[in-house]
Design a protein that fits this description.
4 strands; alpha/beta
């Protein structure tokens, strides 16, 4: 990934629909060349299969999703192991690690999440990645 990336985790996909201020921030980043990244694995936490998913599905179709290749999955495993090795009482989920790994692959990135604690633990050694709430 060469463009700066804006990575969305599952908790903020609906925020891009319901939160007007966040929608403006997201639109601004995308208009200025930031690459949107929604890892496909996050859909397992965001989508329910009910009709109420329609606005989320429309957003996902507009932005698109990114599959996680083997290199990204390996990077996610390394990030999780680093948190475990640091003595943290809680190891982030594999999905959070994959979200973080997608951000690490960009030369500059922001990860939007509703629960920044785990992602900050995963990305503690990655100063080019910012973790923020919408």
């Amino acid at each position: 990934m060469s463009d700066p990336a804006v990575v969305l985790d599952s908790g903020v996909i609906d925020q891009a629909i319901s939160n007007r201020e966040f929608r403006w921030v997201l639109r601004h980043l995308l208009e200025h060349g930031w690459e949107p990244v929604i890892p496909t694995v996050t859909l397992s936490e965001a989508i329910t299969g009910r009709p109420q998913d329609a606005p989320m599905n429309q957003l996902i179709n507009r932005i698109g999703t990114v599959d996680s290749d083997q290199a990204t999955a390996r990077r996610a495993g390394q990030l999780r192991f680093a948190v475990k090795r640091s003595g943290s009482r809680r190891t982030p989920t594999g999905i959070d690690a994959i979200v973080a790994a997608h951000a690490v692959g960009a030369h500059e990135a922001v990860v939007f999440t509703t629960d920044p604690s785990d992602l900050r633990h995963l990305l503690v050694d990655c100063p080019w990645v910012t973790v923020d709430k919408p």
